[in-house]
């Protein structure tokens, strides 16, 4: 809902007011003047490619020391951003990325750590495996080369997963680490990609996820059992945790569907909450992550991606505009006008600096917006994926269903699979490789 | 860093063999660490390799943590060391008091605290410490989930005794603080029945009055409406029970008629922005639940939201209309 303070200011409404003052759209963006692409609401692809390339090849300033335990994430955020921008690394740099990731595999515990020699942890494990999905596919032009995928120790990884499992169906993120839905999502996404999903692994997990749903409709970070079938959610409904919980739920539903009388989420409340996270015109239709908090570009994906997860859950194949429940055109305004940084990269909001995390989650949100709810009569001169048409969310879109770049004046990004935040091509290649050629019994 | 003393030059460290992060090649996206960080991280890798658990490991891990509080391996190794050498955990908790305030948004400071609390098992002073951190950030997610864990895990009646007063203070400071509203719901409805709260009829009545008064003061507050919805659903009370209360909020200021003081149905404040979209949404839900002819009334309200009072979510209101009509036809 639009934020109105009822002439009763409190700290929340005061910071809301000062944020709105920063969210301005250049007025009017006229093509005749010498405005920059950002001032005109166009995605400045070259500027962002420069930002990503600079960080990848030249390195990251010392303030990124706070990410020293998230090194696979730095690679994933930048390489998946490039994938969305339809840029592939050359073979040499792909190899470099794969070697860097494999050096972070923890040979005693299994799984991956936040850097070489760091303890195994579910979050960097997800980022590592997704990075390998992007850079590690067997090279068809070199049939004798060995794919980095063969070097993932799946048996050790599966034992790590089991060792982190808790009696209530949840998982710790690392040995003695915390329990939360981020870890559960990361584990399930990796288990799906690497064909490690078993009933034993996920017994009780759905119940625990359901326990995280709050009275508002969104999900909390975790839940604590307080008696027979009763759960106390720890923390309020939150965009990031809601994405993780819903994606985890859908991954489980696709593998082990609930009967209609079985365990269900409250989808009505979830949809209402998700929709209400989208701000109004004065917030350039950006998403906030919690009720009465400020909009932030990263929720473009954490909330924006949830609508595609719901499509998957409810079996909608081709979402036409009339089925849409949120405002994807609006979200693009936030990303293009507020989240793009004039020096490249994307961000939370002005006047903040960009970073790799916000660059990816803004771009992923933009992609979700572009592939959602396009008017059925939109015509497009080119398919979104010039090289791989199977990158569309359903693999069966026709050109006429693709977003029109002339209408939005934004170059069309690659589509991203909401279950993993990887392109369909990368998901399909990795899943079929681990399904068909390298099935191991546990 | 001219005055930084490297570990190689410190007494008592000469037996440790530091290990560099990368053994060969130039990595992608390298971080330009400071020399100090590189030094301490190299010694940490050296220590982990030998598996040493000793007093000096506490010194080393504290050093890393101060430079990078998200270094979960250092935290994990520190915890194992504390246990292995049977260290004074109360002293460790004191150190955490300082680190938690400086690194409020780091997962690890709060998780480490939880691990310590599982050993120390003295949760009551923790509540006061947490309250202090809310002066810095009253919506910090980690702090709130830590407090809720503490309460639900130890579940001691002395622990719960002041919780409702505490929430009320925070809501008094900022009635839009959704974290505090969630905590209220957690305390009253989602953590069992506490001392003095056994009369559930009375508790329910109290909560409804509280949330209605809050809405009356600041009608356009999504946190309060969500709380109202939550309380009703949790207690299986139909939304229609609130219709007398909600109706005035769906009308413009000039159509307000209430002059009587009605505690059960407090009217919107004179400074409120009306009509209130959240109230219109609520009233539409009442009509939708009634079904039949009322569905058309619901449809009209959804239309007014989409076209006038909440245009930003137009597609959602159109969806609600479609769903409503679909239900009506089946």
UniProtKB/TrEMBL annotation, chain A:
Keywords in alphabetical order: Metal-binding, Prenyltransferase, Repeat, Transferase, Zinc
Gene Ontology BP term (one): prenylation
One Pfam family matching this protein: Prenyltrans
Gene Ontology molecular function terms on file: protein farnesyltransferase activity; zinc ion binding
SUPFAM superfamilies recorded: Terpenoid cyclases/Protein prenyltransferases (SSF48239)
Domain Prenyltransferase alpha-alpha toroid, first and last residues per copy: 43-421
InterPro entries registered for this protein in UniProt: FTB, PGGT1B-like, Prenyltrans, Terpenoid_cyclase/PrenylTrfase
Low complexity bias (residue ranges): 375-394
Top-rank taxon, per record: Eukaryota
Skewed-composition ranges (Polar residues): 395-415
EC number of the protein: 2.5.1.58
Keyword Transferase: yes
Disordered, as annotated region: 375-417
Keyword Nucleotide-binding listed: no
Record-level GO cellular component terms: protein farnesyltransferase complex
Cofactor(s) named in the record: Zn(2+)
Substrates-to-products reaction catalysed: L-cysteinyl-[protein] + (2E,6E)-farnesyl diphosphate = S-(2E,6E)-farnesyl-L-cysteinyl-[protein] + diphosphate
Cofactor binding description: Binds 1 zinc ion per subunit.
CDD domains linked to this entry: FTase
Family named by the database record: Belongs to the protein prenyltransferase subunit beta family.
Assembly behavior: Heterodimer of an alpha and a beta subunit.
Biological role: Catalyzes the transfer of a farnesyl moiety from farnesyl diphosphate to a cysteine at the fourth position from the C-terminus of several proteins. The beta subunit is responsible for peptide-binding.
Protein name as catalogued: Protein farnesyltransferase subunit beta
From TrEMBL, chain B:
Keyword Ribosomal protein appears in the UniProt entry: no
Molecular function GO labels: CAAX-protein geranylgeranyltransferase activity; protein farnesyltransferase activity
InterPro entries membership: Prenyl_trans_a
Coiled-coil region(s): none
Designated name of the protein: Protein farnesyltransferase/geranylgeranyltransferase type-1 subunit alpha
Listed cofactors: Mg(2+)
Origin species: Lentinula raphanica
Keyword terms of this UniProt record: Magnesium, Prenyltransferase, Repeat, Transferase
The organism's place on the tree of life at top rank: Eukaryota
Transmembrane parts of this sequence: none
Class in the EC hierarchy, top level: transferase
Enzyme Commission code(s) on record: 2.5.1.58, 2.5.1.59
Family designation: Belongs to the protein prenyltransferase subunit alpha family.
Recorded GO CC terms: CAAX-protein geranylgeranyltransferase complex; protein farnesyltransferase complex
